[in-house]
Specification:
Length: about 130
């Protein structure tokens, strides 16, 4: 009978060892998973900070552009172009010409029309 009890005891012991090893393996997997998730959270927080900074920059630029638009609207609101055209057409023409030339200069600066010009190279290829 002691052999039988001993075998049962050994089987229970082996089963307990397997369960313990399974628990150790599961804990290792859980720790790696937690570490991976913590790293993902850190990356997400860093990305959120970058996004918040970009949003703040865009909001600042938007505020500046709105201020510029308001300034221009107020400037144009002060002009009575119709009255000036009737009473001082030469003055109005000069203003329009100067403004037009500034617009052309700004467009030229912004678009850089020569950016796609190819540089002339000495092509010595021969054809037979």
């Amino acid at each position: 009978m002691s052999v039988c009890v001993n075998i049962v005891f050994m089987t229970k012991l082996d089963k307990a060892k397997v369960e313990l090893q399974t628990a150790i393996n599961n804990q290792a997997v859980l720790e790696r998973t937690i570490q991976d998730q913590n790293e993902q959270i850190k990356k997400a927080l860093e990305q959120a900070k970058k996004t918040a900074q970009q949003i703040q920059t865009l909001n600042s630029q938007y505020t500046q552009s709105q201020a510029q638009v308001t300034k221009l609207r107020n400037k144009f609101a002060n002009f009575n172009l119709e009255g000036m055209a009737m009473t001082e057409p030469d003055v109005l023409e000069g203003k329009v010409n100067r403004a037009s030339s500034r617009v052309v200069e700004n467009l030229t600066t912004i678009t850089k029309p020569d950016q796609f010009d190819e540089k002339v190279t000495n092509n010595t290829a021969t054809t037979n």
